[in-house]
């Protein structure tokens, strides 16, 4: 992608805040995957960004396990932003998240991506770093070139966000994430329960459960693509009459 360099190394969302001037240009930002040597730096950043304390095992996992898409934005050898998403089977989702996809995708081959964290150092916010990280994740999972081992099997990218985190909500809505559900008392922060939202971005043909209107629209679209609605209906009726006649 133009605008930055790329190189590889062996459930809260960022609060986007206004900054009077960007501290760097995106062309000076490098992207790389996290590695075990980043653990202490990442832990320090997360403690500054997020209102909860992640366990040691979480930091070990995101800096070493292939189960996670853990990407860092680096400027002058320092991590200034990161995105962490877990790629996992749809059938292993918690009950409150199963409804993000239509039941037609209830297969062992269907995968989803859960954005665990997206954060940017305060002085670098509003400079496009968060958007760049999110775009790379989406392109990796749903770009024109199939990327192993997922190979376009990811049908939805979703996240949870505090209902009071208006800046993060606006950030995702501007990037076409759709509000899916309200989660009462989903978070526990400093001993107090907080409500959350689920937001979803559909990729690779994935979609939410359909209602009657969606099915009608889908059938009509197929019919028109085949030469028009009436020829399609007549063809279906003729087939039904033929079957009935020969019985």
TrEMBL record:
One of its GO terms (cellular component) is Golgi membrane. InterPro entries: Acyl_CoA_acyltransferase (IPR016181), GNAT_dom (IPR000182), NAA60-like (IPR045141). Residues 29-215 form the N-acetyltransferase domain. Its EC number is 2.3.1.259, 2.3.1.48. One of its GO terms (molecular function) is protein N-terminal-methionine acetyltransferase activity. Keywords: Acyltransferase, Chromatin regulator, Chromosome partition, Transferase. It is an enzyme of class 2 (transferase). This is N-alpha-acetyltransferase 60.
């Amino acid at each position: 992608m133009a605008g930055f360099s790329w190189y590889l190394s062996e459930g809260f969302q960022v609060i986007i805040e206004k900054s009077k001037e960007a501290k760097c240009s995106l062309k000076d930002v490098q992207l790389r995957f996290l590695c075990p040597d980043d653990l202490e730096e990442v832990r320090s950043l997360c403690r500054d960004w997020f209102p909860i304390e992640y366990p040691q095992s979480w930091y070990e996992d995101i800096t070493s396990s292939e189960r996670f898409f853990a990407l860092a934005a680096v400027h002058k050898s320092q991590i200034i932003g990161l995105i962490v998403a877990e790629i996992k089977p749809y059938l292993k989702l918690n009950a409150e998240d199963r409804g993000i996809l239509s039941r037609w995708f209830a297969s062992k081959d269907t995968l989803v991506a859960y954005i665990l964290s997206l954060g940017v150092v305060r002085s670098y916010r509003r400079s496009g770093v968060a958007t760049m990280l999110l775009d790379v994740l989406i392109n990796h999972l749903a770009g024109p070139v199939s990327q192993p081992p997922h190979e376009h099997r990811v049908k939805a990218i979703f996240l949870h966000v505090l209902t009071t985190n208006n800046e993060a909500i606006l950030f995702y809505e501007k990037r076409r994430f759709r509000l899916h559900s309200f989660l009462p008392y989903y978070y526990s922060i400093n001993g107090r329960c907080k409500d959350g939202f689920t937001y979803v971005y559909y990729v690779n043909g994935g979609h939410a459960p359909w209602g009657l209107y969606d099915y009608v629209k889908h059938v009509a679209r197929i019919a028109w693509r085949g030469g028009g609605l009436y020829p399609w209906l007549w063809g279906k009726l003729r087939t039904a009459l033929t079957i009935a006649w020969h019985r």
